[in-house]
Amino acid sequence: MNIAICDDVKKEAELLETLCHELNYLHTTLFLSGEEFLSSPSLHDFNILFLDIDMPNTSGMEVAKKIRDNEAEIMLVFVSAHEQY
Q1: What is the pLDDT of residues 4-24, one digit of tens each?
Q2: What value, to the nearest 5°, has the Cα angle with vertex 7 and ends 19 and 26?
Q3: pTM of the entire structure?
């Protein structure tokens, strides 16, 4: 299983990566912005994307829309430190 983690806060992305490794999901890739993730040539190779909702420039919601517009079959898991989400 290939997991992508997209969060603009490196510490939070690394925490999610550690949790994935503890659950034996060893194939993780970190992205620190929505733009970085969307420009990845391996976009369609990921099974799950942990996606921060609130990121500068391109929000997680915008990333999700572009993923769905491109018909990528990625399971989206939204993460946020903001209580309202």
Answers
A1: 999 999 999 999 899 888 888
A2: 35
A3: 0.82
